[in-house]
Amino acid sequence: MASLWSYLRLGGAAEQKFDTVGGMSSYATELTRRRPTAPLTAPGADTGTLRIDLSWRMRSSTDLGGGGRRFEWRHPLEIFKPAEILGHSQGVATIDFDLAVMYELKDGSKGVVQSVGGLLGDFNDPPYVKLSGDDRFGTASGEQIYVNLDHKDEFKRLLVFVYIYDGSEAFARADVVVTLVAADGKNIEVGLTDAVPQAKACAVALIEHHKGQLVARREVKYVLGFQSEIDRLYGWGMSWGRGTKPSRT
Known about the structure:
mainly beta, 8-stranded mixed beta sheet, 14 strands, Tellurium resistance
């Protein structure tokens, strides 16, 4: 399947490609500045689950110097490593990106689903958004958020964002991708490009209703602060305090 990993590794424009799995076609679409929106639902495909994945690949020192393709030329077998493994081999796997969603429901209730503070949400009850896992290694199967589309009409807006819990200034050192997997198997990818070195959080995508569909719009707006600054940028109007992640067992 075409993905932003191929775009970021090979240094060219990504194409939209199709794979066939079990007789069904799936494909990846990248949201860009020129094509910033994509529908998440469609007539007959507007229920079920929207899955949001977070993955990243830490760049090598050669990549940071603009020589990623030269690195692959000298070490051709590296291109066959999964991106997250390549990142881990560089000794920077302690970087901890986190996935989160701010929500506003049509009844006026607002909140956030995130690891910090143990605000993991609920899939079957409000806010109908649930965080599963807290992956500190960037694997696509680790940290995910699930949105219950059976209750799509109760959403006013959802804001997907990524933050760095430990305060590391790492956005500029990583290729970060958020993937929205719609109920019909469609993959919509947003790459966190043009990072601000001191940024600690990035608003990735805003999901709202438009002409009877839920539509995702690319944002990719970095802030130097944390969740409260994302809140102010989008006028959520919530009160924020310091929080901690649940301990791991």
